[in-house]
Specification:
alpha/beta, Rossmann fold, Arc Repressor Mutant, subunit A, 4 domains, 6-stranded mixed β-sheet, about 45% helix, about 15% strand
């Protein structure tokens, strides 16, 4: 079941055991990463890098990665966590056979479909929290204490019951209610009661709805593009378009338990929250990608640009009819993946209908390319445009 604490439990076990092994690696968000171009090869490269503590040889396909893992790790006693595995080919690419790792190695896999673990030595099913455990976790986020305030005991119990013993829901809903008055509590809990018991995303959506417009936009940007990215870099990106201080925005989202910042300073987000954010974007235009406020999928981005379906959006608009477009293009230049984030502000006099219209209507552009932020004005467009043509 999603949101029940599989990743958190795996991290605790990993941190307790990791120093007893020659090499160790925690591969997070495997299912999401594997959807990227050459995603399995990227995961294989991370596995080799984290254990060997050196850059792995160029892996241009997962078949090559399988050979390298077996050759270089077969004599090493390692600890590997494979988090959020969804398909058999992901397991085969990263740990195809026991002989790939040395004697005494341990592999921990978090998974939603137990049928993929038929060859595991042991399996452990994480159960939902008891009501008392749920109330303590909820209280910690709603009151910063291990128990609810005296005048909110019954309301807290109601909220806990609606969260169904799921740690993620308890944490996010509790953080959403923190500091709110009793009437606001009653209103939020009444809304929760209307959501079907098994619809965890619907419950999490309540915390998104409670954000103001700028915070919602920042949350959507992060859920679509910036998970597992350095906080400093994300702050620079948000600062290019957000009216609020980006550090304050990130801290507010963290306080609401919508994002986390890990030990090495990267923004992380539970996959349920990430999927919820992307679903919010998808619902703005379920069938026509060009009408969505954000495009994050590679194929969708290409289709929109090639078919000239990028139009002025009614969302992400600012005063004086300044329209905001955010497009990510991911291209493969043989062995190198290039990322282009287009953060565009422009004064649109009419409906934007494609590449040329965007170019002619924009008053200022910001492009983030390979972790560098560039600013340029329309008279500089052609030079930068040639760079893009060369890259593609």
């Amino acid at each position: 079941m999603p949101g029940i604490g599989k990743t958190t439990t795996a991290k605790v076990v990993f941190n307790q055991l990791c120093y007893g092994f020659v090499g160790r690696c925690f591969l997070s968000n495997i299912n999401e990463t594997s959807k990227q171009f050459n995603g399995l090869a990227l995961l294989q490269k991370q596995l080799l890098h984290d254990i060997l503590k050196q850059d792995a040889a160029n892996i241009n396909c997962d078949d090559r990665g399988k050979v390298l893992i077996k050759e270089r790790l077969c004599r090493k006693r390692v600890l590997v966590v494979a988090d959020d595995v969804a398909h058999q080919d992901q397991l085969k690419a990263l740990m195809g056979e026991r002989s790939w790792f040395g004697p005494g190695s341990r592999v921990i896999i978090t998974i939603r479909d137990s049928n993929l673990l038929r060859e595991a030595d042991q399996t452990y099913r994480i159960e939902e929290l008891t009501r008392d455990q749920s109330l303590r976790l909820f209280s910690w986020h709603a009151f910063k204490d291990t128990k609810p305030a005296e005048d909110c005991i019954e309301l807290s119990k109601d909220a806990v019951d609606y969260c169904g013993g799921l740690p993620l829901a308890l944490e996010v809903i509790g953080a959403c209610l923190y500091g709110k008055n009793k009437d606001r509590w009653k209103s939020e809990i009444d809304n929760l009661s209307r959501i079907p018991e098994n619809n965890i995303q619907g419950k999490l959506l309540r915390s998104f709805d409670a954000l103001d417009g700028e915070l919602q936009n920042a949350f959507l940007d992060i859920s679509c593009f910036f998970t597992d990215i350095e906080k400093e870099y994300v702050a620079k990106v948000l600062g290019a378009r957000c009216r609020y201080n980006p550090d304050v925005v990130l801290e507010t989202l963290r306080e609401r338990s919508l994002i986390k910042v890990n030990a090495i300073g990267k923004i992380t987000m539970h996959d349920l929250l990430r999927d919820m954010g992307r679903e919010v974007v998808r619902e703005t235009s379920p069938k026509e990608h060009g009408k969505r406020t954000i495009i994050w999928n590679q194929e969708d981005a290409w289709n929109v640009l090639e078919q000239q379906k990028v139009r002025k959006s009614s969302m992400h608009t600012r005063k004086h009819s300044h329209a905001y477009f955010l497009v990510i293009l991911i291209t493969n230049n043989h062995t190198k993946v290039l990322l282009f984030f287009f953060l565009v502000y422009g004064c649109c006099r009419g409906s934007c209908t494609g590449y040329e219209s965007i170019r002619s209507e924009i008053t200022q552009h910001r492009i983030i390319c390979e972790n560098k932020m560039l600013k340029f004005t329309p008279n500089q467009w052609s030079k930068s445009h040639r760079i893009l043509q060369t890259a593609f």
